[in-house]
Amino acid sequence: MTVPTGRRERKKAATRQKIADAALRLFLERGYDAVGIRDVAAEADVAVTTLFSHFASKEALVFEQDEDFEQRLTRAVTDRALHEPLIPALRREVQALVRHCTGDSAAPIWRMIDASPALRKYEESMRLRHAESLATAIAADPDLSRTTTACRAIARFVIDAYALAREAADPRTAVDEIFRMIEAAWEVTSPSANSAHQVAGDGAGLQE
Q1: Residue closest to 144 by CA, chosen among 74, 98, 198, 191
Q2: What is the pTM for the complete model shown?
Q3: Does the N-terminal or the C-terminal CB of the chain have fewer CB atoms within 10 Å?
């Protein structure tokens, strides 16, 4: 999680974390559907308006690291070392995110999410948003030179890799296995690969 630097930012972050911790505590104790926004606000000792200034919905309380995860994925593209290949940088970040989300303490949270249609729907929309942000970051890098469709497809694959690995018996191995396929797909979309394919196709046409 990004550490805020200013006093005001630190105070705001602390309040946000207090609300998220109170919400998760109540959700796990009583069940997600049995807890209302007012219950969470009372538990965190904040006004309902304060809660909504930090979280747009009840579902967002469960995914309080949503923005942080999205930023980590885009920074894996924008902050990678000069000339570092894209896919290894993304694989490293996804491995870290999967480790974070597969610890013993995370298991009850995922059981709660899986049992709630509202939370599953929110998670799905969140993944799509993360994929679009990641695709935008990839497309904006002049060194990567891919079509918009290729950028969006690879971004979707990366987000799905996280979701699939999180559910696997051996998450780390699953990430490695999936990213081998992602890397192959990424190479196929390179301009040089497309040029070679075009040349091969033209040659086949001349032989007919």
Answers
A1: 191
A2: 0.84
A3: C
